[in-house]
Amino acid sequence: MSSHYTVSALCECLHINRSSYYYYQKAKPLRIEKELPDKLLIEEIFNKHKKLAGYRTIRMDLEKIGITMNCKKIRRIMNKYDIKTQVRKKNPYKEIMKKTQEHTTCANILNRQFKQTEPLKTLCTDITYLYYGRCEKAYLSAVKDIATGELLAHNVARHLTMPIVLDTIKKLKTNVNLNGVLLHSDQGSHYTNPEYQKILKDNKIIQSMSRKGNCIDNAPMESFFGHFKDEVDYKNCKTFEELVEKIDEYIYYYNNKRYQWGKLKMAPVEYRNHLLNVS
């Protein structure tokens, strides 16, 4: 039995007219020619973001140059021409140091209240690991403003010892008035350490912690690390110094040039200034 079917049989099966099918086929080159400028624009922005931009980022970039294109159209063109971003891998980071009896946890004061409107008042922090060079390992500690999405302080270290978080707080202190600020983290051993908790108390910082095993409680920080690992080619850094330079460059870009859909399509610093002006 032949596996081939006639056009008439297929059209009858799909309940369409043969004339409609032939018209569609005839008009195909015209449709491709018509959408070619849009496709080239989308590809240009996609490549500018190192082939990691989603349809929302592309739409925001288009709007910045005065071009309006709805998300549905951008997604259709991206799917049609196989313009696809990488899928973020699940973060395998786990607690790697055991807590001792003097370590204490704190209440989850933040309680997933991520819709903050006052800049520099509700912050979150975390640490992630980064492999680079010949299987060398470094660690990135960062503090993020939940209201604006801005990275306020970060620190990179070769070792996962207490200075990585203590130095992060020292850097934060130079940028932010810490009196009464809420700082949220997970229950990692660095954040339950008495030395860390003392420096927070001395600076009148209110400490909040995620519930055990609930990474979503610190979603803003997890989101940043996810974007960083998607968008930065840190694995090909040959030296620690090169890695630090690449991290600094990305955080500057993230704060000043990476537009965010949920922040009125503004970059974090721009959105922070907007909130301060309307308050």
Helix and strand topology:
Layout (H helix, E strand, L loop, with lengths): L6 H8 L3 H31 L6 H10 L6 H10 L41 E11 L3 E10 L5 E7 L5 H13 L6 E4 L3 H4 L1 H9 L3 E4 L9 H13 L8 H17 L11 H11 L1
Parallel strand pairs: 1-4, 4-5
Antiparallel strand pairs: 1-2, 2-3
Helix pairs in contact: 3-4
Q: Could you describe the 3D structure shown?
A:
The chain is α/β, with parallel strands linked by helices and 279 residues long. It has ten helices and five strands; from the N terminus they run ααααβββαβααβααα. The chain has a five-stranded mixed sheet with strand order 3-2-1-4-5, with helices on both faces. α3 packs across α4.
Descriptors for this entry?
five-stranded mixed sheet, 10 helices, 279 residues, alpha/beta, 45% helix
In short:
With 279 residues, this protein is of the alpha/beta class. It is built from ten helices and five strands, in the order H-H-H-H-E-E-E-H-E-H-H-E-H-H-H. Helix 3 (55-64) packs across helix 4 (71-80).
The average pLDDT is 89
Instruction: List the total number of helices.
Output: 10
User: Spatial order of the strands in the main sheet?
Assistant: 3-2-1-4-5
**Largest β sheet strand count, sense and barrel closure:** 5 strands, mixed
Calculate the terminal CA-CA distance, rounded to whole Å. 75 Å
Tell how many strands the DSSP assignment holds.
Answer: 5
Using only CA atoms, what is the Rg? 25 Å
The H/E string reads HHHHEEEHEHHEHHH
List unreliable stretches of 5+ residues: 93-97
Shape: elongated
Oligomeric state of the chains present here: single chain
Please indicate the percent range of residues in DSSP E strands (runs of 2 or more): 5-15%
What structural class should be given to the helix and strand makeup? Answer: alpha/beta
Question: Portion of residues in helices?
Answer: 40-55%
